[in-house]
Structures are given as structure tokens and as C-alpha cells.
Amino acid sequence: MRKKITDNISWVGKIDWEIRTAHGKEYSTHKGTSYNAYLIEDEKTALIDTVWEPYADEFVTNLRREIDLEQIDYIICNHAEPDHSGALPALMKYIPDTPIYCTKQATLSLSGHYHQDWDFRTVTSGDTLSLGENTLTFFPVPMVHWPDSMMTHLSGQNVLFSNDAFGQHYAHELLFNDLADQCTLYEEAIKYYANILTPFSPVITNRIQEFLATDLPVNLIATSHGILWRDNPEQIIEQYLRWSDAYQEDQITIIYDTMYNSTKVMAETIAAGILQHSPATHVKLFHAAKADKNDIITEVFRSKAVLLGSPTFNKGPLASLAAILEEFRGLKFTGKKASAFTSYGWSGEAAKLMLSELIDAGFETVDEGFRINWRMNADQRHDALQFGVEFASLVF
Ligand SMILES: Cc1cc2nc3c(=O)[nH]c(=O)nc-3n(C[C@H](O)[C@H](O)[C@H](O)COP(=O)(O)O)c2cc1C
Ligand SMILES: [Fe+2]
Ligand SMILES: [Fe+2]
Fold this sequence. Notes:
InterPro entries: Flavodoxin/NO_synth, Flavoprotein-like_sf, Metallo-B-lactamas, ODP_dom, RibonucZ/Hydroxyglut_hydro, Rubredoxin-O_OxRdtase. The chain contains 12 helices and 22 strands.
């Protein structure tokens, strides 16, 4: 259903209350999400983006209730990922000749997905499209987060249709940031950045600086997921500049798994050592197989340093730690310190292997790690505590 967001812009997207994982099973969506599409009605009518494929028919049915589809003069496709372009095939069946404005890269990714001979009009940075009273200006943002990604600015009301940038997976019928729960909004925005955008941080810094240099005024950031930023929209731009610049809080995150709790007791003892050295530091512990993977990654994003603990299991770490390390490799965190520890029976390779993978993933390992044969005795508890103290002294 249409939701008016300004005099001549309507939200025509889909709020997905039931989704609990996005990107297949890669991203947990505890709060649901939305696929935000927008209809701009000026002398000309433009549709900005669509919705995810499973909602394509619903989207087109709803849109037909609002407007004669033939009245849509232009379609803007900011990003070809199926959560935004997924309803194009259903829509284009009705209006096959309507031009689609997008980047050159998007013509490739849209063709690669849908294999249709649509009327693509490729745009480059600064190109404009007049809608009558107001004008669209295109601002491609390649690798934020696909090569085809683009933002589109509308003059007059000064709306930035930012697509995936500045979004959050957060279903909310009231749409606007001043009407949302502020804690949830912040948590979902940082989780989204940490899990999806971290690998592109250097690019994000540059693209934001380039956008700010255009001096295009922004009164509203209309994202493609979740909440729209109308109250102080600069706040999320400034936050992205902080997050993209090797972001850290005063936090150390310990991620462990355990079969018989030996490694868990090590984790808790090391945490006590960290707090002994730095009583005001946030030390957070997560069981790698029990906590949500994306929540763990968000906490790592916030951290100055991480510690990975696993029993040695068939000469390596448990699969939950291997999975986290694989995530780290792709996310390309920068400026974070790390170490690893293991409880082992006879060979004890897990700590060394995790250290080597941490190095490959771009972490700075600060020591040789820590090993305990079977379970800790009283002396070894003291050693673990001391390991925590020394780790903290190398981090702070
Ligand atoms: C299926 C299995 C495989 C194991 N493989 C190894 C191994 O390859 N090398 C080693 O040093 N210890 C190995 N161990 C011993 C564990 O590392 C040891 O029991 C450890 O203390 C368990 O820690 P936890 O109490 O945190 O689960 C293995 C244990 C199990 C149950
Ligand atoms: Fe995307
Ligand atoms: Fe998206």
C-alpha cells in the first residue's frame, strides 16, 4: 500500500515482518526488514526500485491500485540485487517499453539475472533527468556494495534515494527515524554496516566524501531497507564516516566454543584477567555455536581486539570457530588485535591454526596464544588470568 512520505513521493514497497534470515542464511533479520520502493509524481512519474522477488506479484498488484502503470515514465534501478530488482520482470510485462535508468554495471547484472531486452538508459555520475518541477541526479557508488550500486538525488524536497547505503533490516510501519525505537535503529544500522559493508569501508569513505563535495542538499535519506532518515539525516552520514574509518570502541570480544567446558572456563578466566588490567573495558563473551553469527560480527566490529578459543578437535578448531574465521577473512577488518587459546588433549594445534588464520584475515596477533592440557588446575588458572592481563596490556 502507498504511504505518502512527501507531497509528491509515495513509499510503495513491502514490509517483510516474517523474514528471519536474508542473503540466504547469511544475515539474521531478528526485526524483519522492508524493501523500500518509491513513486515520484511530478509532471513525469518515476519509480525508484522495486521489491524482493517473492513479493513481485503483490507489488505489481498494489502499484496498479495506485496508478495506471502506463503513467510510469521512468524506472530508476539503483541496484540489481534481487531484493530490489526482483519485481522488475513482473512489472515490465505490463510496461515493456518503459526506460530503465541505471549504471552500465547494472545493465550487466540486470541482464545476467533476467535476460530481458529492456530499454536500459545508462547513467554516469552527475547525469540528470528532469521530472518537470524537480530533477533527479544520479550518483553511482560502485562497490557500495555491488559494482552496479547507485544513489539518486531528487531536487526540490532534496531526497537522497540511497538504496542499500544507510539501511537497516528493521520492519517498521511508520518508516521514519524519529518514529522508530532509537536503540533498535542504532543496533540494526551498525549490524548492517558491520556485516554487509565492512569489506568496502575504504570505498565508502571516498564515495561519501565525493557525494558531500557535490553540495547536493539532503533533507531526507530514503533507504531501500528499513527506516528513512528525515530527522537530522546527516547523523547517519557522519556515522558511516566513523564506521568506515577502522571503527573501534573500548571493547574486547572473546569468542569460544567448548565440548566439556574446559575452554569455556579458560575464556572466563582470561576475561577476568582483562578486567583486572582494564576495569572499564567492555569484555563480551560469545559461544560461537550458540550466539547469532551476525551479532558476534557486530561485536567484533566494535572491538579493539578479539580472542578466539576452541578445544583442539581433530587437530584443529571446532567448526563454529572455523566458520567465524571464514567470515573474518571476507570482512577485512582493519586495525584490530587478536590472539587465540585452546584446551587440548594430546596435540593442541587449534590455537596456532587460529592465530595463523587471524593473521590471514588482517588481524594483528600480539602473542603466541595460550594452551592448556585438558582442564586447568589452580596454577594454570593463574596463568590464564595472567594471559588476560598481558593481552589487555598489549591492546591498551
Ligand atoms: C572428537 C574429539 C577429537 C579430539 N581431537 C583432538 C586432537 O586432534 N588433538 C588434541 O590435542 N585434542 C583433541 N581432543 C581432546 C580435546 O581437545 C580435549 O578434550 C579438550 O580438553 C576439550 O576441551 P573442552 O572441554 O573445552 O571441550 C579431541 C576430543 C574429542 C572429543
Ligand atoms: Fe544489496
Ligand atoms: Fe538490499
